Every structure is written in C-alpha cells, then in structure tokens.
User: What shape does this take?
Amino acid sequence: MTSRDVQPGGDRDLASPRAGSTLEIIAPDECIRLLATMSVGRIAVASGADAPIVVPVNYAVDGDVIVFRADRGTRLDGLQDQKVAFEVDLIDPYQKVGWSILVRGTAHQATAEEATHVEVDTWIGGIDMHWIRITSPVITGRRIQLPPLPQRLRGYL
Assistant: This one.
C-alpha cells in the first residue's frame, strides 16, 4: 500500500489535517509546567558568521530558568551572555496533537550556587562538564488539540 492508496480520513492518513482541531496558545505558567515534565530539549546557538547549530541537551527547570550541562571544549562551552533559543515538544503524529514550547533568553555559565541544587539527568558527558543557565526567558507555547467529542459520545468514554 502506498500513501496514494490511503483514503482521506483513513487510519493511516497522516498528511491531511484533523477536521475541527484547534491551535491554542499556552499560558507561560503552563509552559513552565510542561517543560518540567520533559528532560530533553534542543538549544539553538549562533556563533559568529557560522550557521546556527541546534543541539539536544538534557535539562531541568529551576523556577523559570532552564539549566543544562555541557562538556568543556564544545561550541556550548563558550556560552556567556549569548542570546539562545531552547525548544521542547511532545508530538503525536498519529493523532495529530501535541505541544511545543519555545524559550528565548540569555545563556551564561552558572555558578555552583546557581546550579548544584538542580538535578539534570545527563545521558552522556565526561567529568569536565559545567553548568549553563538560560535566564531572562521569554516563554511561549502552542498546543494542537482534537475537537471535543460529540455530545452523544461523551457519556460512553
């Protein structure tokens, strides 16, 4: 079966939009709550004339600040008072629902006092890692939701 064989509305029709789905703006406090439910995000960093890079990192939320660790000697090592973007999402392509949170702020090297109370579950990394915080964040989010169930079905589910 090819993608052309799938009928609109069929179980495997992932290319068409879901009728009645809505795009909702997520309030900043809900964005922070959602960020705290995940542990991997992507940081986007521009470096001089080079093209920006996007790197996955393990992170934690400390209030409204994103905290992560980086190995020394990497492009993330030089983050000091640099503007960055950080993104986390949860997407279900089958149901065509999900959310995406974008944090824009300033990255800087964290002091021990700023970071030692935060637990970041790092997947890899050597002993020569250091802490980075994204401060002064502007946090925005969006959520795609399914339409509400018809009234006649609400009592059955």
Notes: The mean pLDDT is 78. The chain has one domain: 28-146. The radius of gyration is 20 Å. The domain at 28-146 is CATH 2.30.110.10 (Pnp Oxidase; Chain A).
